[in-house]
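Sample entry (309 residues):
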Amino acid sequence: MAAKPTAPRQATLFDWALLVLIVAFGGSAFVMIRSALDTMPPVVITVSRLWLGAIVVYVIMRHAGRRLPPLVVRNGDKLRIRRSWRWIIAVGIIGNTLPFFIFPWAQQYVDSGLAGVYMAFMPIWTIALAFFFAGESLTGRKLIGFGLGFIGVFVLMGPEVLKGAVGADLLAQGTLLIATLCYAASVVIARRAPPIRPRVFAAGMMLVAALSATPALLFVSFEAGQWSLASIASVVGLGIFPTGINGVLIIMLIRRAGAGFMALTNYFTPIWAVAMGALIYHERIEAGAFVALVLIFIGVAISQRITKV
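Predicted structure, serialized as tokens:
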């Protein structure tokens, strides 16, 4: 177990720029998934995006002159998994493989709006886990700010989401909650991990996720002849941006500004997803979306306000 890290410093302008990029790439994923699902099965989309993401991050890492560390080291007459790889493997499986499968499965039984609301639980999980396991503060100001952001997501999705939750599959809703806990746990694990270069961490993490997800292809029918060019292009986009490049950016942001700050992306991502839906699919933006945007901004401002001494 790594030593408990010190509390993260106040976020800088560069950290906010990283957060904006993560939100932009992550929010765009919903549109690309929607397009990919027209002709491709969810499992194929998940495995493909993970492998594409792994290739992208590996190329980025090698271009920077970095290499993955050896997987095993010799301890006397025995071989054991290298300490850094234990953390990388944990984040790869918990933060990528498991939730990447859970969300597509659960969204067969619940509306996407309800799934979006469950994603808003991730920051709540994160600040709690980061307080107990990553040395991050849990102040009343932070709780109020994150609470307002959570309410903002509810307002964004609309009252029909709450009605849908009553009749939706309870098992699917439970697995969505587990998926958000997986995301939060992986963020805190990455924060607790020993010093590892972000590009190396991300490359190892994505390779682990892709390898562990691949056996699922044995249980699906490919029917590749029915895949459209639009679906294939969407999967390529998913692999490059929300999965690959975002993998590096997320690790960078966690190590720089902390788990709690990175978790804020889950409040902004639904806003971006709604905007992309309006721009590409001409979906109507309700008045509640603007109210939600104000609530989320206020919540973030409160949670991130610098306390003057």
